[in-house]
Specification:
Layout lengths: L10 E12 L3 E11 L7 H7 L15 H69 L3 H46 L3 E13 L2
Antiparallel strand pairs: 1-2, 1-3
Helix pairs in contact: 2-3
Length: about 200
């Protein structure tokens, strides 16, 4: 295995950590970390390939240097954990932005259709006003005035719907913000699955 050529006749330590992050959704990460006795870290590929080799289990003769190794691996683990959390934060930020944009587009469509309906009503009211002025007799004027009053009531109703739509959008935005704020309270659990010593002949 070419990835392990540089590790031949070397020895070191290998650990596996389970990182669970419960944020927008639960995510589990199995993090393999390896280091040689001379302080060089193994990459992910090398860590994985070590498990493909046949192995013989033997008793650990001394654990006097485990504290130094643990410190090295903990520092490396903290770096990997930071990268993962930053990645999750970036994804959550994109999700939040996308959801806000969806609400904005939906709200804009709704407002645009209501504005168009109000404009049509305004145009029709203006037309009726002109007809009322030009109407030749009182009965016709009264009939046109009734039509105008009906359209004005419809326009007032359209304005009411417009205001309700604006409030509804703001309520949904507040709800989304509250929901995301709750989900941002990340719950992190960590567990070391094992720490083993290896030697590659």
């Amino acid at each position: 295995i070419s990835a392990l050529n540089d590790l031949q006749h070397k020895s070191g330590w290998l650990s596996m950590q389970l990182l669970s992050i419960d944020s927008f959704e639960g995510e589990d990460y199995v993090i393999l970390l390896g280091v040689t006795d001379d302080g060089n870290f193994l990459d992910d590929e090398q860590c994985r390939w070590l498990f493909e080799l046949p192995a013989e289990e033997s008793e650990l003769l001394s654990n006097s240097d485990i504290s130094d190794v643990s410190r090295l691996l903990e520092e490396r683990y903290a770096q990997r954990k930071g990268i993962i959390i930053e990645d999750i934060s970036t994804r959550n930020s994109k999700y939040f932005q996308n959801e806000l944009e969806k609400l904005d587009y939906w709200g804009e469509d709704k407002r645009s259709s209501l504005k168009m309906a109000m404009k049509e009503l305004d145009d029709e009211i203006k037309r009726l006003r002109k007809e009322i002025r030009l109407a030749p007799n009182l009965p016709e004027k009264l009939d046109l005035e009734k039509q105008k009053r009906k359209l004005e009531a419809d326009r007032n109703d359209a304005w009411k719907k417009y205001d309700e739509a604006a409030k509804s959008i703001e309520i949904q935005k507040d709800k989304l913000i509250d929901e995301i704020e709750q989900k941002l309270q990340q719950r992190i659990t960590e567990e070391e699955l094992f720490l083993i010593r290896w030697q590659l002949r």
